[in-house]
Amino acid sequence: MNLLTKTIIASGFVAGMAIAAPASAQDCPRGDLDDRYCDVDGDLIADTPTDESQLLDPETLVFAYTPVEDPAVYKEAWSDFLTHLEAVTGKSVQFFPVQSNAAQIEAMRSGRLHIAGFNTGSNPLAVNCAGFRPFTIMASADGGFGYEMEIITYPGSGIDSVEDIRGGQLAFTSPTSNSGFKAPSAILMSDFDMVSERDFEPVFSGKHDNSILGVANQDYPAASIANSVMSRMIEREVITPDQVVSIYKSQTFPTTGFGVVYNLKPELQEQIREAFFSFEWEGSSLEAEFEKSNEAQFIEMTYQEFWDVIRKIDTANNVSYACE
After folding, report:
1. Rounded to a whole number, what is the distance in angstroms from the first to the last CA of the chain?
2. What global pTM score does this model have?
3. In this structure, what are the phi and psi dihedrals at residue 192, rounded to the nearest 5 degrees?
């Protein structure tokens, strides 16, 4: 059993998937999707059922944002958007403060979560195991989007390059995180011939802010993190720039993907899409929080195209999208 498998089991991901309500396998094309889903059109995401008896039309829509930092911060940040979502859909909307990626995926798979923003690394698992249909990401005013994985340390740590981590400790966030685990694992192996447990001791902090604070407070000698999270923490003065030093910066990856569970009524899915693309950012609580990482609008995207590099990283890490 490799580190990824052991850590996923320890985090409760496998257990969370196991307790979800079973569904009968269907005879249809599905690619990597779980047996309960179909992908007839080949876009790599679950098709919306054509049988009306399988469609959801809840009175209250439940929304969750990826658990990268304190959920209380994001309940307030999303408040104006959720008010807009209520106006467009005519539904009540509840913010669900999830504590882990595994819990968020399990909630959607079990039918308790309808709209969500899943972090970069969790998107493929949410798509394949929970029937997540992502369609938008945040972008800057000029349409630019994405973030980089950085490996950070603190001044005076004795770590001046990636190779200096050998024999020491590196903090990851969670096994479902792209920048917090999967991307650095693949990059360290391919570019530096460094393998977790052989060349360094891995520890898991649970979230990006935990890793960033851990380095800033000198609890961890080094950590792999998403620099968009670090930018927002610096803007909020949670840490100061002089508390951390970056020793590696990756290519740009797509940021959090937003979408819906596959079996919402098609009309409701369209209303939710409309809410994202008609939302006015200027002066909103969403702008107040996400302008810290230079984000100012929602743009349309497809999982098939935007997550291609992430699926390749998963392949390099031998990640399975099986839900068992």
Report:
1. 15
2. 0.77
3. -125, 0
